[in-house]
Amino acid sequence: MNIKAGVLFPLVFLLSLPNIFSIELTEKAIEVQLKGEYNQSLNYHGEMAVIGDIKLNNLYQLRGGGSVGRSENDIDFNAFLNAAYSPFLTLPLSFSISYIYNGLPEYKDHTHSILPLVSFNNDRAGISLGLNFRFNINPDEDPTFEPIFSFYGYFNFINMDTLHIGMGIGNYNDFHSKYLRELSLRTYISLFLGGNWTISNEIELMQNWIDSFEFYGFAWRGSVKYSW
Fold first, then answer.
1. Burial 16-30 (b: 16+ CB within 10 A, else e)
2. Which domain holds residue 129?
3. Could you report the per-residue pLDDT of 191-224, keeping only the tens digit for each?
4. Residue 43 region, left (φ>0) first, then alpha (ψ -120 to 50), else beta?
5. Considering the entire predicted model, what is its pTM?
6. Is residue 1 part of a domain?
7. Residue 178 forms part of a structural domain
8. Measured CA angle at 227 (ends 222, 228), to 5 deg
9. Closest CA to 60 of 40, 22, 87, 78
10. Which residues of 98-130 are buried (b: 16+ CB within 10 A; e: fewer)?
11. Is 147 among the domain residues?
């Protein structure tokens, strides 16, 4: 029995080699974002981000990026890495996990988040649900761990090959995962140009709910993406 197994396993491995190594880069993209924000805590805050995105065999997606932000008094650094798997070719259901880092060097404050998500996203609408496992480390305080429910949903009012206009609401994005009471309402427009270029603009209204919903601030985000 051991001899048969010793012959069978190498044979199965050799037969599987074409599938193991038949990896195709089905989509690649790079995006640059600029953001300006006014809020009740920091007044003005500006940010620049760069994001890279690749898809493998139309089943796997890897996204990652970094950003540098500047307010009146401090600088912040943020980064994320996301891996997603879409097992069904005809059903827009995917499973993903993100690592998010947020750092304030001046205050020696560092936050690490692990965010698994289940998403149902099609061209017209979609929703993502997950639980953020957030660790905050500060040398002046005890480390804290918080599980936080995270969600984001969107709807495209106009969904054309060259134009998307829609709205979304949630408490997380690529670089930040916030408390459930810190909701953001986003209105966006994306214009798909010739030559694989996409230009997007987004207006974000931020709410902070304690006893009732209160206006916290607003932001504008513009981006340019090139995909091939």
1. eeeeeeeeeeeeebe
2. 24-227
3. 999 779 999 999 999 988 765 678 889 999 999 9
4. left
5. 0.86
6. no
7. yes
8. 170
9. 87
10. bebebbbeeeebbbebebebebebeeeebebeb
11. yes
Report the CATH number that the domain containing residue 56 is assigned in CATH: 2.40.160.40
For 103-119, how does the pLDDT look when each residue is reduced to its tens digit (9 = 90+)? Answer: 999 889 999 999 999 99
User: CA distances (Å), 199 to each of 32, 33, 92, 126, 225, in order?
Assistant: 10, 10, 24, 21, 7
- Two tokens at 39? 């809020």
**Nearest C-alpha neighbor of 206 from the set 186, 226, 222:** 186
Distance CA 47, CA 78 (A): 10
CA 159 to CA 141: how far, in whole Å?
48
> 132 lies in a domain?
yes
Structure confidence at residue 6 as a pLDDT band (50, 70, 90): low
Looking at the structure of the chain, the number of domains it has is 1
**Given this model, what pLDDT does residue 151 score?**
97
d(C-alpha 224, C-alpha 99), whole Å: 24
